[in-house]
């Protein structure tokens, strides 16, 4: 089982991880299943991505080494490009940060998936549960790849890191940050709206992993 990226695995250090969920994309407004469907940002999403970048520019200290790492799906890349422009950093891609794959459902109407989706059991093997959709990832496969990506990210000596992900993969980033074992992620969920910023901090004395802010969208309110 993929271990969580705790300080004993990736090294302790004072750091802040800024987790960003991509902004509004076409599949949101068209009522389509996202997953690996490579939707693009809407015009509103592009405006909100710029606001995310501006918010991070205000919060990330100038003169510190910062990197931006993003899912390789287009909607995340576009959000990361706006963030990178604001911070003066070229984003790097990591496919392990992609959203969960919904197989043949990706890009289809959400109603199509809803009719076929098999809900995980309340107890039992939720991690290997078959959702009834051809080609869909199990939660275990999904969690393992996101945890592997976060582990590699946190192993790098950076004081500030921006990670651009999705609503689902972002939840696993938070779980990995907190040291939640992969086998427990079948239940762990965190609400991360589109365009949100989550602030994750590790202190230099106790090496605690703090969720300083979760799924904040205050920086988007100027759009109405």
From TrEMBL:
Pfam families with a match to the protein in the record: His_Phos_1
Which of the seven top EC classes does this enzyme belong to?
isomerase
GO MF terms here are: phosphatase activity; phosphoglycerate mutase activity
Return the EC number. Answer: 5.4.2.12
Q: Where does substrate bind?
A: 75, 99-102
Q: Which GO terms describe its cellular component?
A: cytoplasm
Looking up InterPro entries in the UniProt record yields: His_Pase_superF_clade-1 (IPR013078), His_PPase_superfam (IPR029033), PGM_Phosphatase (IPR050275)
Task: Provide the active-site residues from the annotation.
Answer: 22, 99
UniProt keyword terms in alphabetical order: Isomerase
Q: Domain of life here?
A: Bacteria
Record-given protein name: Putative phosphoglycerate mutase
Q: Can you name the source organism?
A: Cellulomonas cellasea
